[in-house]
């Protein structure tokens, strides 16, 4: 039976809950806003199926890529509406045109991030662009299995741990499945996102959210919340994401990096494009497409006409998240301790505090409190 005693050992993929034959596992949010499995012990039949699908209990070997490519979507609108080079839309459109189904992450009406399925080109649009919040997977693995059983082609996209969870959930190799992971720095807390959104919107309805607004360029992207556009370095939520404070504890010990999720394709930003491939760099977004299987290769060859081979180790040099887990910052525990009480305007302070180390952080807090109280 799944029993999460150490939160750094659960990535929240939800495979256990979806696999349980008697539905005795529920994903529940903890005090920091992350989902963890909770087992109804009385209903559990002790079959241990949940343990067999856990990416932490069934770690796979890292895999060498078949080939690594640099590519961008030739449709400028699609590229502009994507985080990187807009490759997701190229691959996904092809699958839909062939009568397949695509799973991905979208915002719901409350701006929570949820996994869902698309069967038309119009339904693909909400999946575009990175949402820097851990998505709620719900019953997506079960739904994907149903589509596969109907003989439909399924392209399942998500973070590496979500792909690992799906593959373990499905068990046997699936003829009509193609899995596409996005490179992942780590997943931020849905709870922190809700608090930040409330703070930014003042509780009012928000019409737009875009974590990767390219109107200020691909490298210098902005975050758009409602009518408010900020450079990502000036957005407290993004700062705590990029500095690893609001990440899930398991992200510091990710079991699914570097091809070990079993994904057919990995999509990433080709950071360092100005060095690796300077003549193609227009600061509008370039993707690294890491092909990891023959099936992945076939799909990429069908969709991507203009690509260039690049060296995977060069790509990882500028984008370490592809191969290495995020580093747990000093002050991570302090961040969460303060989160429940501190107003969010203090968040940015943690970048500084983390770099300075915990004791320096404590003394700065003491000085800060002293000034507030006197
Ligand atoms: C939490 C997170 C961290 C990331 N960290 C890095 C990184 O360190 N380095 C890097 O190169 N790239 C990272 N990416 C991936 C990158 O931002 C792009 O998503 C990827 O390169 C694909 O870009 P695109 O232009 O092809 O398509 P886009 O249209 O930008 O991406 C759409 C795809 O992203 C998926 N997606 C969006 N949000 C989520 C989510 N919350 N959970 C699961 N899937 C999601 C959609 O389902 C779809 O498959 C991260 C993405 C996420 C969600």
Describe the structure.
By secondary structure, the protein is α+β, with helices and mostly antiparallel strands. The chain has 3 domains: 7-52, Alpha-Beta Plaits (2-Layer Sandwich); 67-322, no CATH class; 332-373, no CATH class. 33% of the residues lie in helices and 17% in strands. It is built from 15 helices and 13 strands. The strands form 3 sheets. The chain has an 8-stranded mixed sheet with strand order 5-4-6-7-11-12-3-13, sandwiched between helices. The protein has a 3-stranded antiparallel sheet with strand order 8-9-10. Helix 7 links the parallel strand 6 (154-158) and strand 7 (177-182). The longest helix has 16 residues, at 358-373. The model has no long low-confidence stretch (mean pLDDT 93). The site of flavin-adenine dinucleotide has 32 residues, from helix 4, strand 4, strand 6 and strand 11.
Briefly characterize the structure.
The chain is α+β, with helices and mostly antiparallel strands.
Structural topology:
Elements: H1 15-19, E1 25-29, E2 35-39, H2 49-52, E3 67-71, H3 76-80, H4 87-97, E4 101-107, E5 113-118, H5 121-124, H6 140-149, E6 154-158, H7 160-170, E7 177-182, H8 190-201, E8 209-213, E9 222-225, E10 228-231, H9 236-242, E11 265-269, H10 273-276, E12 287-291, H11 294-303, E13 307-309, H12 312-318, H13 332-339, H14 349-356, H15 358-373
Parallel strand pairs: 4-6, 6-7, 7-11
Antiparallel strand pairs: 1-2, 3-12, 3-13, 4-5, 8-9, 9-10, 11-12
This protein binds flavin-adenine dinucleotide.
């Amino acid at each position: 039976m799944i029993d999460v005693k150490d939160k750094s050992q659960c990535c929240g993929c939800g495979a256990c809950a979806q696999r349980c034959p008697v539905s005795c596992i529920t994903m529940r949010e903890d005090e920091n806003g992350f989902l963890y499995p909770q087992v109804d012990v009385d209903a559990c039949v002790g079959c241990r199926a949940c343990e067999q699908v856990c990416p932490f209990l069934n770690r796979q070997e890292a895999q060498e890529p078949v080939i690594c490519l640099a590519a961008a979507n030739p449709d400028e609108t699609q590229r502009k509406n994507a985080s990187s080079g807009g490759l997701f839309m190229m691959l996904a459109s092809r699958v839909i045109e062939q009568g397949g189904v695509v799973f991905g992450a979208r915002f719901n009406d409350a701006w929570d991030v949820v996994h869902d399925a698309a069967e038309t080109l119009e339904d693909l649009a909400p999946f575009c662009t990175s949402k820097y919040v851990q998505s709620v997977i719900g019953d997506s693995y079960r739904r994907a299995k149903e589509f596969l059983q109907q003989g439909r082609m399924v392209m399942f996209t998500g973070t590496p741990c979500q792909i690992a969870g799906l593959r373990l959930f499905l068990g046997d190799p699936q003829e009509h499945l193609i899995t596409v992971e996005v490179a992942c720095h780590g997943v931020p807390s849905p709870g922190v996102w809700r608090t930040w959104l409330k703070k930014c919107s003042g509780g009012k309805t928000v019409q737009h959210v875009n974590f990767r607004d390219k109107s200020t360029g691909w490298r210098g992207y902005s975050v758009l919340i409602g009518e408010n556009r900020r450079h990502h370095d000036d957005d407290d939520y993004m700062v705590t994401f990029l500095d690893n404070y609001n990440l899930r504890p398991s992200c510091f010990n990710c079991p699914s990096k570097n091809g070990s999720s079993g994904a057919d394709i990995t999509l990433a930003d080709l950071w360092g494009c100005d060095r690796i491939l300077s003549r193609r760099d227009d600061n509008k977004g370039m993707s690294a497409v890491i092909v990891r299987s023959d099936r992945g290769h076939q799909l990429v060859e069908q969709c991507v006409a203009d690509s260039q081979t690049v060296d995977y180790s060069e790509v990882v040099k500028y984008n370490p998240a592809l191969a290495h887990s995020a580093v747990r910052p000093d002050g991570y525990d302090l961040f969460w301790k303060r989160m429940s009480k501190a107003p969010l305007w203090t968040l940015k302070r943690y970048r500084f505090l983390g770099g300075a180390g915990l004791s320096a952080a404590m003394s700065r807090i003491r000085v800060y409190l002293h000034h507030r109280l006197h």
